[in-house]
Amino acid sequence: MYVYLMASKPNGVLYAGVTRDPRKRAWEHKNGIGSAFTKRYFVQRLVWLREFDTPLEAIAFEKKLKRWPRAQKIELIKEVNPNWDDLYETLNH
User: Fold this and answer.
1) Which parts of the chain register pLDDT below 70?
2) Separation of first and last alpha carbons in the chain
3) Which own/partner contact pairs does 58-61 have at CB distance under 8 Å and 24+ positions apart?
4) Rounded to an integer, what distance in angstroms lies between the CA atom of residue 58 and that of residue 60?
5) Structure pTM?
6) Where are the domains of the chain?
7) Do 83 and 21 touch, CB atoms closer than 8 A?
8) Superfamily designation of domain 2-90
């Protein structure tokens, strides 16, 4: 299971989610079928991704992440993706 963060642009609107298939889920967001929120705000850039051993761990971290202040989420992204690159292109096709 994976927890991920999508962004509309660097320092833009953020969206946190959990999925078994990050490539498929990011594709859904990019094509406007990921969620109403991401479609409305054009949140299409996969900027952060972390794998967890179990679904329970992933869901627990996602809930925790959603309660973090925005600045803390941005720092998490910058630690591994300082240029806010779209990580979708790095996933196996």
Assistant:
1) 93
2) 18
3) 58/1, 58/2, 58/3, 58/18, 59/1, 59/18, 61/3
4) 5
5) 0.94
6) 2-90
7) no
8) GIY-YIG endonuclease (3.40.1440.10)
